[in-house]
Write a structure and sequence with these properties.
This protein is an alpha/beta fold. About 40% of the residues lie in helices and about 15% in strands. Strands 5, 6, 7, 8, 9, 10, 11, 12 and 13 form a nine-stranded mixed beta sheet that branches.
Length: about 675
Amino acid sequence: MKFIHTWISSIFGPAPQQKEIKQQKKVLQHSLLFDADYYRSSYLKSAKLARLDPLKHYLTEGAQQLFNPGPEFDTAWYLSQKPDVRQSGVNPLYHFIQFGEVEGRSPVPEVHEPDGFSSPVVCNQKLWGGFSHLVLPRLEAFRAASNRKAYRIQSLWYLANWYYVHGQIALALELLVYLEELQGRLTKRVLVAKCKCFLVLGLPEKIVGIAFDEKARPILGKEVAYLEINSLGVEGDVFESRWLEKVNALYESCGLAGIHKADQQLPLSLFNLAPAEEFTPHSIQTGDKNAKVSVIVPAYNSAETIAIALNSLVSQTWSNMEILVIDDASTDGTREVIESFAQQYPHIVYLRNPKNLGAYPTRNQGYQKATGDFITVHDADDWSHPQKIEIQVEALLADSSLIATLSNWVRVNDNLAFVGPWMLCEDFLEKNHSSALIRRSAIEGIGPWDDVNVAGDTEFLWRLEKAFGCDSTLTVKPQVPLSFALTLDSSLTQNQTTHVKTIFYGLRRLYREAAAWWHDAQIEGQLYLDPAQRKFPCPLGNSRYGEREFDVLVAGDFSTANLAVDELVNYVRDLTQNSRAVLFHWPDYRSLGDAPIDAQVFEFCKGYGVTFTHAGNRVGAAKLVLVDGELAQWAPDNPPQVTGLEQVYILGTASDEQANRLKQLFLADA
């Protein structure tokens, strides 16, 4: 037997360990390239094998047998192109998602395709990576003209997702219907995506046709419950009773208490939810005192929603708790609502900022006042299950190696329909980053939240995991939502500059990469973040402070894909000797990969106090310098708008006409 294992390892590399499998499973379960139904019907045909988890089987055995995880990924071909992957034992699909896709590799054998692009995967990278106006026609060509079915399937999914996010719901639905016909079978991701489109279009009867279809239900799995709820309509006693029945079934399946209407005379809403039974509030002894939880609730102009959060917090089963509600200089009736709650509940403490600071600085104000052994935050328009705090605290008390616990949430609209994530996918649940319940000692060790406009939760959790290890956090009850997040619009009516889609191109991506660079560059014990002395560059749109007027804006490819990035850094360094400069990362459209900002760029920014502007941002600068004239052939989406722009320089060969076009591209109010 040992000989057999040695022989297998010599061909396929070492077998994956349980920790690796767990990590890979987290990544693969959200990939559109893994199709559990396809895998089961192709390779797990016997009654005995049919009971196995398809994804786990592919990770532990299937890939070594050259099984395909779906019709759009060719395991044998990919391994033939990457022999080092086979020798290392890394799962080929996992490698493709983590590395191959970024490198521009194809998941199936490449063939000649329109416009010279090798695969829709590369197009999708550029679609979200700042070149949508150039790539949309290419993806449309793929889905209409490709002679490879897998490429057409990929293109249809990518296009449907793009149109859904950008509010073109009917068009997204049309593409999904065509995609389903092309696939010739039902798949979970398309069924759920269609239902999300039906929800936005106000067609619950169409959701009924999918949620109660005998062929679709086994494929939908746990998502059936959410679709059944969304098929109920929006009003009436029948709707309310069925909604509570379905939601309580979810909670009861996980051993949690149900909920009901707090006031039977009022309509069902997030304002009118309460525990379905009386609880005896309790806490657990830790040493000579009860473990105390401080809940920080930032509130700005939240008069219409703050009662949702406070009603759910005063109903928590964990007794030793203080609720610090910090009014961020609201101008509506927020103060009056909070004070009315504080009069009824002594553990609610009202605090007020003298001026508006923003959500994360307000959290830090609350942290300074908090007296709990554990710290957590709660958004002013979220509802939480009455056992949420208790479950998260008990997990920490039961395992001293844990530093923080989190829980999942689901986004709902004001009709209590489940909306789910902002992009199309097969899930409704998401990890609620703001649910992190943290040991006070951990925050004292790594510092508070960063003083930014958005993405502070992500940076904080990454810093926490970097300091204490990825196994130091745990998501409790991951199969059920412990919070409902009220969302009024899933389209791009949100601020374009800070929208979550900028994790791919723009503000959030720049901030994440800069933070990750700092995390990786620190040695143990030096991960403390002082928001007043941040040690990595913060893109302009993510801070209320800092310079907004500059002498020169330098545009260029600052990524690792630029082989001359060291020369670029030297050029900017020389320029900053006599000028105030700001950078704009202009990705090279010709580069196949989706490369990050080069580390030496961040090191330079840190040393010289230089930062980035980005898509949608507005800055002042008299001069614009594009350091690579060839980049001008492929203008990026929504470049920063520059006020006071007088001179434009394109290094290398460039005509006056090109310089004028570049000026018009960046000139504010042009």
